[in-house]
Design a protein that fits this description.
The structure is a single chain. The chain is α/β, with parallel strands linked by helices. 34% of the residues lie in helices and 29% in strands. A 9-stranded mixed β-sheet has the order 5-4-1-8-9-10-11-12-13, sandwiched between helices. Helix 1 packs antiparallel against helix 10. The longest helix is centred in the last third of the chain and has 16 residues. The protein starts with a helix and ends with a helix. The model has no long low-confidence stretch (mean pLDDT 93).
Amino acid sequence: MTDHGLLRATLDKFPSLTVHVLGDVIVDLYTSCTLVGTMSKTAALSVQRGAQTAYVGGAGIVAKHIAAAGATVTLTTLLGQDAAAEFARTDLLAAGVHLTAVPRSPTPTKERFVIAPGGQAVLQVETWDAASLDAPRTAVLMDAVAGCAADVVVVADFRHGIFTTATTPRLLAAIPSGALKAADSQLSSRWGMILDFPGFDLLTPNEREARFALGDQDAPAPVVATRLYLQASCRHLLLTMGARGLWAIEPHGEFSLPAYATHVVDPIGAGDALLAYAALALRVTDDLQVAATLGSLAAAVACETAGNVPVTPEAVDQKIEALR
């Protein structure tokens, strides 16, 4: 068990850090619905639409977690010229995130229709453009990456325009030397690939993303983690496994941590909180045990909260207290 005083001291040092987040902003819409019944002639559900709540997701919530943790954060992303983009700009600036937005339409959105009570999502409708990023916009992104000096560079890859087979090597080559580099690559409706980020200081894939990258459905999770660690040539790896906690690998060994969530409300976005807090902690301490613990505690807070709400140090501190 990591010393509680060390965990708190690490949180206290986050405001000294500058962070550059690079990745796709997604606007998440949650539409509450009441189940009316089923259609008489098809298997379709009939629902009555209720209130809708909007959140900034994707790389945007990663940046908001980092800002809430006290660090100075710049987010470089793509945004359209639409209502979703205006919402995202307003929300991010209010959260204290410095924004560099390259224009591209539409702004990706994901609308989840949620049946109450219980909060079970029954349908997700997405809006995004799958076309590859053109050379001029790629050049603008590269200049933004190269021109942003930071203690930590966090890649939050959701495969909604920024990272492709053509752009990824060029963007990574533009990262200034000396920054701690952390990455996650989501495997959802789009196919991310965590192995596209070799030589990083920290990778935080979930088990499904790791198995997809290796093409391995059968090996035990620790074996998958070791194979990915070696193939990615990363310095530290946190393989998250949902309710089974995580498996961590560093140059001098391996260890596991349990899941700290006690009442899961919404597991979507837990990995974003883990990435944010683990990257900050690793820069402060260069201690993966501390980074993994704070990342896991932040993920637990995110799981116990509905929607993409930034995780604060105060909420993590309450989780630290609960470890006693």
